Amino acid sequence: MGIQELTSNWKNIRTAVNLMNDQIRKQLEDQRKWRETKTVPKKFPHPALALPAIIFAVMVLYFSIMLYGICTASVEALPVQSTPESKAARIATLVPAPLTMTVCTGNLNVRYTPNGSVRGYLKAGETIELKLDANGKSITQTIEHENWTLVSSPVAGWANTKYLCKTNGGTHDRN
Fold first, then answer.
1. CA–CA separation, 20 and 72 (whole Å)
2. Could you tell me whether strands 146-153 and 157-160 are parallel, antiparallel, or unpaired per DSSP bridges?
3. Has residue 89 got a pLDDT over 80?
4. pLDDT digits (tens, 9 = 90+) for 14-24
């Protein structure tokens, strides 16, 4: 194979690559133009579908109300009190107060997992909020004979329970 054949093959390859690039550019340009000219229909797709769609929406609303038991009879059965204190009391019974504890030691490591890598630090005397389960109890785990409690704030993660104190009227009781 001579130099002329190699040069000729190279030119043919370059021409083919340029032709493919031009075709790709043309396809991309056509796609871009199609996206730019594409319009969203301004009215309902077909007028005959409007009434069935409304009926369907009303049926879904009705059945969801019936499914969740929301009806006027159950609302009327609730006692109605309009004093601010009663509203606060009802809210307090619906949303339990968060369970808090205090850090008893110098610096407490909060970890990603019980006895895992450190996520953050808490200082002695800092108040923490515990993560609660569905029954309102703190979430704990025992790993290698150590009890760990799940903390929700100020740093979310696991803290060793032996370094946490319960707060009782200004004094700290070790858990």
1. 70
2. antiparallel
3. no
4. 888 889 989 99
Task: Answer yes or no: are the C-beta atoms of 164 and 144 closer than 8 Å.
Answer: no
Residue 141 structure tokens: 């785990």
Residue written as tokens 């690559």? 17
* Number of Cα atoms under 13 Å in the Cβ half of residue 65: 12
Domain ranges within the chain, ordered by starting residue: 47-76, 100-174
Distance CA 110, CA 113 (A): 9
Fold of domain 100-174: SH3 type barrels. (2.30.30)
Q: How far is CA 92 from the centre of its chain?
A: 25
- What is the torsional sign of CA 100, 104, 108, 111? negative
Predicted confidence band of residue 49 (pLDDT cuts 50, 70, 90) = confident
Residue 12 phi, psi dihedral angles, 5° rounding = -65, -40
Measure CA of the first residue to CA of the last residue in the chain; give whole Å. Answer: 89
Three-state secondary-structure class, residue 131: coil
pTM of the model: 0.44
